[in-house]
Design a protein that fits this description.
This protein is of the alpha+beta class. 19% of the residues lie in helices and 39% in strands. The chain has two helices and seven strands, in the order ββββαβαββ. Strands 4-3-2-1-5 form a five-stranded antiparallel sheet, sandwiched between helices.
Amino acid sequence: MTIEFKEGRYFAAMWFISNDDDRDWHGALYRDNEKDSPWEFRYRFRYYNEASKNPFDGEDRKNWYTATMPVDKEESEVMKLIAMMADQVAEEFDGADVHKLVLRTDSPVRIMEAMSRESWCHIKEGEEKKDSLRINIKSEKTNG
C-alpha cells in the first residue's frame, strides 16, 4: 500500500514522527475532488531493519492502515483528530517531535515541491518511466 498523488486528489496535510532508533510513522490526510468523497487518512508504521542500507531497498517492514471520515466533516475538525492521533504516536515514540506539512492542494507538482524541502522525505526519479517518482519517508539518521 502507498499514498498515491494524482490530479483531483486534495491533500490537506502530512505528518511524520521518528524515534530515530528503530521506527517511524507517516500519514497523509486527503480526499478526492468527487461528489460525496470521504476524507481518508492513510498512515503507516515503519520498523527499521538493521540490514537496510537506504530507504529504497525494501528491507524495512511497513504496516499500512487507512481511516475514513464522513464527507460532512470539516477539514479543520478532521485535522484536529489527526493531530490528537499524532500526539499519541509521539508519546509512544518517547516524546519524539511531530512534523506536520500543511499542503492544502490537489496539485501533485506542488505536493512534490513541498515534500522535497522536508529532511524526512526522500524522493528519487523512477527507473521504469522518466516521469515517475518514488517517494520514501524515513528518518535521516537511519539511512545507513
